[in-house]
Amino acid sequence: xxxxxxxxxxxxxxxxxxxxxxxxxxxxxxxxxxxxxxxxxxxxxxxxxxxxxxxxxxxxxxxxxxxxxxxxxxxxxxxxxxxxxxxxxxxxxxxxxxxxxxxxxxxxxxxxxxxxxxxxxxxxxxxxxxxxxxxxxxxxxxxxxxxxxxxxxxxxxxxxxxxxxxxxxxxxxxxxxxxxxxxxxxxxxxxxxxxxxxxxxxxxxxxxxxxxxxxxxxxxxxxxxxxxxxxxxxxxxxxxxxxxxxxxxxxxxxxxxxxxxxxxxxxxxxxxxxxxxxxxxxxxxxxxxxxxxxxxxxxxxxxxxxxxxxxxxxxxxxxxxxxxxxxxxxxxxxxxxxxxxxxxxxxxxxxxxxxxxxxxxxxxxxxxxxxxxxxx
Length: 376
Fold this sequence. Notes:
The longest helix has 21 residues. With 376 residues, the protein is of the alpha/beta class. Helices cover 36% and strands 13% of the residues. It is built from 11 helices and 11 strands. A 7-stranded mixed sheet has the order 1-7-6-5-4-2-3, sandwiched between helices. A 4-stranded antiparallel sheet has the order 8-9-11-10.
């Protein structure tokens, strides 16, 4: 039986989780809290005994989750919509732009590539690839140098999935000015990094990673500028005015972010998202971020102490919760095997490894990493 962590995490937060002590793969998936488990189990159990009130009662979780997401993003429910995942939001943004060029980092996660490739294939917005530095950094200077008259938007990840480098959203906003849209994939940062989300026109996030809401959860926030400029190309029947009026007519899109709704979402998933967001709110993102930063620093010390080559930013202010590294002369698969043997769960790439701690990660996890790397 895998040992569970027993204290040492953030008080008032860590006690709600039971992932194994050496779990360090939150950038891939964040094991949900007991509250999320209870909320989803209860919603599913109630659906099995459905009566005339059940479905309406369960679907109210979507509104509560929407309100919580809006508060954490610094906006309001009218500018927030729940989505089943981050990619759905990226496709809405890409297909909503009728044309022009969109600056996209060439090394970004594919979720920020394929929507723009598909929009170009349909004769809409066309991606223009930005070269990033070796740490995944997209600098304001690089964006400024790429700006031309036909650029209508910049689409970036808030946190680079390879290195954990955090984008300077405020500086990027200033560089592109008020006449272009800033689209942000926030999945590797929302809930774990206190970033200025209001600088972006579109923020999309999935809940399965740092928010720890499990799969099929997510949301998007849209600024007034985004609502004005993005066409509701993918709007479904739940994204229009008077959605419950079935009169065989096409209804106009909803006034706010709800226009990005395609159909009814799972109220079971919404219940889990509400529970996850409520817990993050109760503890506070700054407190969660501070604990993650401490653990990331300890992981960096462990990697360097074993002779590893750090691929993530060294400065705490430039990184989020991801620590990527190589062990020179040792294949990544062999390093992963050593980590597995010591009860550590990393992300394994062909040429590197990624460790990602959360606010429930304890010092014992760092000790496991040190022992594993020493065994090499």
